[in-house]
């Protein structure tokens, strides 16, 4: 083992000592030992305890620990601290600009135990609630986490959408007489992307020359008709060249996943080479299948039988539900959020759903604050009419499945989004029952982010999807498609089952700032993958329709 690796072990020990607020003098001594070991003039692995203990800054006890590291890779004091530290908290120590003291505050004060939860907290402006954090620090941490994720080679679709458009735009500008299109996972709007795939009729050598003229990109591999490159952020691009005559066929062939293409080839082994994708599908006896649906999940049968849904678009949305304000952990005020919704997005209604009182980590609303918010909603509705603000709440689903607040308070909301935010370590049976109990509560209108997942960061708690969806169908509870790019939950793979059961879905941005309202676009993308049509989406209802819907739900509540 090299000295540097031993030094890193001591550095980790000193960091954990600081994290657990141990004796500051001993903590500094271990940090100093780490530095001294790294600068030893000889390999520690070839030295004796006596040789090591005579070095400046390295005493006998440190030398003994070095020997233990060489033998076992660790030592008991370090193992003890590691055993007390959640894996995600250990991972935070790798984030640039985030030291043990700040991590202790994040872990103990905000109860955040993973990098994914930390990124989500940064996006929700929640980190500023902890001691020692400001807006600048929060932004630096967010950027550091995103950079770290980029180095893993996987990206959220939302995180690379703009840079992909910029690259394609530059390709179009350089070769305006050629055809260019996104393809692969990116064209299907998959939520997680490994590479940006592009099909072009530009000869590959001309593409290579263009890339060499652009310092921001580096060529990794060049083949006969393909070039693989990456940019400064570590994003991978796969560019494939084809001919004008084969462009439509190759676009179809590279867009669909393997199952989709195999099912097409089962109809006709050699897919016809025609002028457009529409013509190819028609020749196969199929209606045109939108790219987002080409996942081999039943869309071929839909196309055969004329049952393809009219997929929802962003323009179909009439309002937005499940949003936050400065009453809880939002960045912008209730009025700012509503005005942005009306004036910038052209929507007809806005649903406010600040956190409930149990969510102390998110400044959940006391009953007194609720009263204040209700009064402001009434004032703003008079001011902004005919635009309407609906009074909602994101009520925490407690450990036993009950909702936060007593029934007489829940009865006063226009609608209630029920979500799990705490005690996430559950087995499938417990998580499912907890959700079903909340769904059966007569005050629940919408089930929020059903699995609690954070993409690329934290898997959702395991649930029996069919039981949860069946319960929503039986109790006429809407299921949220949380449009935050980190969530996109309900997963599109289960949206189809929900629609088959007659469940309404709602594309909710879970916005904590005005710009977050635009995240509904990403919810639309995954909703299209799930086969959602406008008439089955709650916030595609007109203002009059959703007013009637909420009033009907209120009448169905207990007297």
Automatic annotation (TrEMBL):
<dbReference type="InterPro" id="IPR016195">
    <property type="entry name" value="Pol/histidinol_Pase-like"/>
</dbReference>
<feature type="domain" description="DNA-directed DNA polymerase X">
    <location>
        <begin position="1"/>
        <end position="295"/>
    </location>
</feature>
<keyword id="KW-0269">Exonuclease</keyword>
<dbReference type="InterPro" id="IPR022311">
    <property type="entry name" value="PolX-like"/>
</dbReference>
<dbReference type="InterPro" id="IPR027421">
    <property type="entry name" value="DNA_pol_lamdba_lyase_dom_sf"/>
</dbReference>
<dbReference type="Pfam" id="PF14716">
    <property type="entry name" value="HHH_8"/>
</dbReference>
<dbReference type="InterPro" id="IPR037160">
    <property type="entry name" value="DNA_Pol_thumb_sf"/>
</dbReference>
<dbReference type="InterPro" id="IPR050243">
    <property type="entry name" value="PHP_phosphatase"/>
</dbReference>
<dbReference type="GO" id="GO:0004527">
    <property type="term" value="F:exonuclease activity"/>
</dbReference>
<keyword id="KW-0540">Nuclease</keyword>
<dbReference type="InterPro" id="IPR043519">
    <property type="entry name" value="NT_sf"/>
</dbReference>
<dbReference type="InterPro" id="IPR003141">
    <property type="entry name" value="Pol/His_phosphatase_N"/>
</dbReference>
<dbReference type="InterPro" id="IPR002054">
    <property type="entry name" value="DNA-dir_DNA_pol_X"/>
</dbReference>
<dbReference type="InterPro" id="IPR047967">
    <property type="entry name" value="PolX_PHP"/>
</dbReference>
<dbReference type="Pfam" id="PF14520">
    <property type="entry name" value="HHH_5"/>
</dbReference>
<dbReference type="InterPro" id="IPR010996">
    <property type="entry name" value="HHH_MUS81"/>
</dbReference>
<feature type="domain" description="Polymerase/histidinol phosphatase N-terminal">
    <location>
        <begin position="319"/>
        <end position="399"/>
    </location>
</feature>
<protein>
    <submittedName>
        <fullName>DNA polymerase/3'-5' exonuclease PolX</fullName>
    </submittedName>
</protein>
<keyword id="KW-0378">Hydrolase</keyword>
